[in-house]
Amino acid sequence: MWSSLNGFQRILKVPGNVYKLFSPILSMVRKKRPQAKTKRKSSGRKSKLSSSGKNNPRKFNIAWANFSMFIILFIISFLLYSFSTNALLRNFFGILSTVLGVLSFAFLVILVVLGIAKSGKKRR
User: Fold this and answer.
1) Cα-based distances in Å from 80 to 28, 75, 89
2) Is CB count within 10 Å lower at the N or C end of the chain?
3) Who contacts 63 (Cβ-Cβ below 8 Å, separation ≥6)?
4) Are 19 and 8 in contact (CB under 8 A)?
5) For every one of its 124 residues, what pLDDT tens digit does the chain have, with 9 covering 90 and above?
6) pLDDT of 57
7) Which among 122, 124, 103 has a CA at the least distance from the CA of 57?
8) Measured distance CA(83)–CA(98) in Å, rounded
9) What CA dihedral angle connects 78, 82, 83 and 89, to 10 degrees?
10) Which among 122, 116, 114, 124 has a CA at the least distance from the CA of 57?
């Protein structure tokens, strides 16, 4: 009996009629197609950092603009929080200043990371 079963049926102990149902799917899975070999020409030595280095000043400028915008909005909302007398407005400006402060801190972290990456690139 074992000699009539192929490897897939022996491993999973699948009856022959169930195997016949799934044989087209299994034959597609088992086929290995040869990979065509392609030759790649390299024109000189290129650094991986050169492609990311082109966008670094642009990223730094965008992060700086966002950081300064959120700092200004944070200061305005904090001043409005301090000088408002209505409880509803005070709570609104308090939450707004908290959110804007967190966003400002996030952009500060991004600026620090981009600054470290920029200074590390100059050393190389």
Assistant:
1) 68, 9, 9
2) N
3) 107, 110, 111, 114
4) yes
5) 555 555 555 555 656 665 566 666 656 555 566 677 766 666 655 555 554 555 677 888 888 999 999 999 999 999 999 999 999 999 999 999 999 999 999 999 999 998 888 888 777 6
6) 78
7) 122
8) 16
9) 80
10) 114
Do residues 58 and 114 touch, judged by C-beta distance below 8 A? no
**110: Cβ contacts below 8 Å, ≥ 6 apart:** 63, 67
Q: How far apart are the first and last CA of the chain?
A: 70
**C-alpha triplet 55, 60, 61: angle, nearest 5°:** 100
The total number of residues shown for the chain amounts to 124
Pair of tokens at residue 22: 């799934």
Domain ranges in the chain are 1-29, 53-123
Q: What is the dihedral of CA 18, 19, 22, 27, to 10 degrees?
A: 180
